[in-house]
Known about the structure:
By secondary structure, the chain is mainly alpha-helical. The chain is 77% helix and 4% strand.
Amino acid sequence: MENRNPVPLPGSSNALTFGILSIVLTLTCCGPFGAIFSFLGLSNAKTAQNVFLKSTGQYTGIENAKTGKILSYIGLAVAGIYLILGIIYFGVIAAIVASSISEGGGF
Length: 107
């Protein structure tokens, strides 16, 4: 029996918002904050999908939860790539400094 007036799925818009924020924050300035928002988006998407599966059709907006989940995974992947690039970057700098110091060149 379907409800004539479906209501928005709780948490689905939050999942979408957190997914968008995870990508935007990671790309603009704050990689770790992007990863945090990715985890929040994934958590909200999972909760929303569980509520939707247990419901009897009274909710709409599962698309927002699915999109938020995908965007959260993308944001998490980009944050991971930035982390790896940061480690490589600072590793190269540390190697150059260590090489300079060991050769007696100093600064």
